[in-house]
Amino acid sequence: MLSLQFIRKNQDMVLDALKSKKVILNLETILEIDTERRDLIRNVDDLKAKRNKVSQLISIKKKNNENSDEEIKNMRSVSENIKRLDDKLKKKLKKLNSLLLYIPNIFHNSVPSGLSEENNILVREWGKKPDQNKDYKDHVHLCDKLNLTDFSRASKMSGSAFPLYTNLGAKLERSLINFMLDYHIKQHGYSELMPPFLTNREATTTTGQLPKLEDDMYYIESDDLFCIPTAEVPVTNMYANEILRQDDLPLKHVAYSACFRREAGSYGKDTRGLLRVHQFNKVEMVNFVVPSQSYEFLEKLTKDAEDILQELNLHYRVISLCKGDISFAAAKCYDIEVWSPGEQKYLEVSSCSNFESFQARRGNIKYRCNKDQKVHFVHTLNGSGLATPRLMVALLETYQNDDGSISIPKVLQPYMGIDVIKK
RNA sequence: GGAGAGUUGGCAGAGCGGUAAUGCAGCGGAUUGCUAAUCCGUAGUCGGCGAUAGUCGGCUCCCGAGUUCAAAUCUCGGACUCUCCGCCA
């Protein structure tokens, strides 16, 4: 959410964000309602000031046993007017707020222009593509041969695109999660959380999934709760409606969660195996920081995610998303894509974003500044570190051997207890 | 699912129809000056005027509705926390 004051003063930036993020919304309407709002506030505040003054007077007269019938009579009509205007104001505010929730975040000035994927900028690459002459089997083939997943049986209980990991596949999944958690905690100083996987409407609005993306969420109607699409939702809301101490910042949390996405509208795209699934596991990093430092932390957070791929020795690249590719709530975003030898393409395994004060404003997350003792919104950031399905794809494919077995990377061996998966 | 208790400014805690005591902490200032004491100021938010400093006003005692000239205080509805009972992993 942006402040009305900001919108009033920076209409061009807001229009750019609306256009780039493909949000259809009439800014004029919002500004008109805002003007009406301010007029109403002025009127009703004047009346209330009058009421307060006269009430004071009545109180004094009563104490002195003086008659105040005249004042009381006058105040009756004043109060009626106040009520009328307050109702009107409340309706305006409600309408205004519902519109404001649809305004996307504005861009940081380093975000590349352009509306499509091709305009994303390659920031860096790490490692090398594995030997291009080798005959790489894809992960579906490998999982099948080594009994690591069982999609056809999963469909019996949940339908398509819900993974069922089996045997060493399940253990590998668990190992990846534990390795990543342990690594971020030990090497990067994160504190661990295990959050609820269902969140209410309010919390889901804070992070920006609602109201715009409700169709992409799994929803439990009887309790008005949403299955989280990422641990970002519960973790970011941890400090909702709180004023944090500046000395407590930065707060860096890492959390494992299952993630649920309906992927409405993306049927037929990347449907094979683990490439796009409705439920997956992810280790998520969330930062709460002082505004002046948030872009430093975005770089750091992205490196934290990259470290996992480096430890696993997997080839990847980092790209800076252009205006048209950045999500609704983000001001700037890096995607990390790992190389899949089986697919012969890069797969997104992490998205690291700075939301600046966008989520903080929606969730009312503030801190008290040491210097001036005033209260300001924090900046929130988050990034996957990492999501497992595509990581597993790249891992299995990259580490496959000619005899059909799969070597286990060194860092995972303590978790797996073996160094190779074979038939 | 049933019963009870509670929710007040960063924290603690009074007030129970006349417009938020007090204590502590933090921050700012004053004063005295021997590792401290004392005193003063200091919540958030929205709006008006003002270039800024500032200043004036509104709102805010968990949320919402109601009664009243006036609600932290009374009535109704709801959320959350704690305790007990029931059921269940």
Query: Can you identify the CATH superfamily of the largest domain?
Result: Bira Bifunctional Protein, Domain 2
Number of strands: 16
Tell me the name of the CATH class of the largest domain.
Answer: Alpha Beta
What is the oligomeric state here? single chain
- Beta-strand content estimate: 15-25%
The whole-number mean of residue pLDDT values reads 92
Question: What is the straight-line distance between the termini?
Answer: 53 Å
Radius of gyration: 27 Å
Detail the topology: elements first, then pairings.
Blueprint lengths: L3 H6 L1 H10 L6 H37 L5 H32 L20 E6 L12 H8 L4 H7 L9 H22 L2 E3 L4 E3 H6 L12 E2 L4 E3 L4 H5 L5 E4 L5 E10 L18 E11 L4 H18 L4 E5 L11 E9 L4 E12 L1 H6 L1 E4 L6 E3 L1 E9 H11 L7 E2 L5 H4 L3 E2 L2
Parallel strand pairs: 2-7, 6-12
Antiparallel strand pairs: 1-9, 3-5, 4-5, 7-8, 8-14, 9-10, 10-11, 11-14, 12-13, 15-16
The protein binds one RNA strand of 89 nucleotides through helix 3 and helix 4.
Detailed description of the structure:
It is a single chain. The protein has helices spanning 4-9, 11-20, 27-63, 69-100, 139-146, 151-157, 167-188, 201-206, 232-236, 294-311, 358-363, 388-398, 413-416, and strands at 121-126, 191-193, 198-200, 219-220, 225-227, 242-245, 251-260, 279-289, 316-320, 332-340, 345-356, 365-368, 375-377, 379-387, 406-407, 420-421. Helix content is 41%, strand content 21%. It starts with a helix and ends with a strand. It folds into two domains: 4-100, Helix Hairpins (Orthogonal Bundle), CATH 1.10.287; 117-421, BirA Bifunctional Protein, domain 2 (2-Layer Sandwich). It is elongated. Helix 3 packs antiparallel against helix 4 and helix 5 packs across helix 12. It has an eight-stranded mixed sheet. 36% of the residues are buried. By secondary structure, the protein is α+β, with helices and mostly antiparallel strands. It contains 13 helices and 16 strands. A hairpin with a 4-residue loop joins strand 10 (332-340) and strand 11 (345-356). The structure holds one RNA strand of 89 nucleotides.
